[in-house]
Write a structure and sequence with these properties.
mainly beta, 113 residues, 56% strand, four-stranded antiparallel sheet, five-stranded antiparallel sheet
Length: 113
């Protein structure tokens, strides 16, 4: 996977956000997920925050809602919301510009039994 970068040239503002489209869709309800990334920080004090969006669909498979829940890098998260799809939102905070990015992003998902 190519680096998930937040910069451009120069410094980014106090917070930059990147959001994926749908990264997982299945007919079963997502119960848990673990998002694991490798962070590369261009400046002291740069940090990342992570959210996973649980996506609900109607009977014709159209997206009806996305509920965002905060998660911690590398720790399993049990969802409060229900749905059968997932999106990812990452916010980079700091002054590292293009030197602050994610070099790896993986997700492990647990579906309803």
């Amino acid at each position: 996977m190519a680096p998930f970068s937040f910069g451009g040239s120069g410094l980014f503002p106090s917070a930059r956000q990147a959001e994926t489209g749908l990264v997982w869709k299945n007919g079963l309800t997502v119960q848990k997920a673990t998002l694991t990334t490798t962070e590369v920080k261009g400046a002291l004090g740069d940090l990342f925050t992570y959210e996973l969006g649980i996506v609900a669909f109607d009977a014709t498979e159209n997206e009806t809602a996305t509920v965002w829940e905060s998660v911690t890098n590398g720790l399993e998260h049990t969802f409060v919301a229900t749905g059968s799809g997932i999106k990812v939102r990452v916010t980079a905070i700091g002054t590292g510009g293009a030197s602050t990015y994610l070099s790896r992003m993986e997700m492990e998902i647990t579906l309803e039994a």
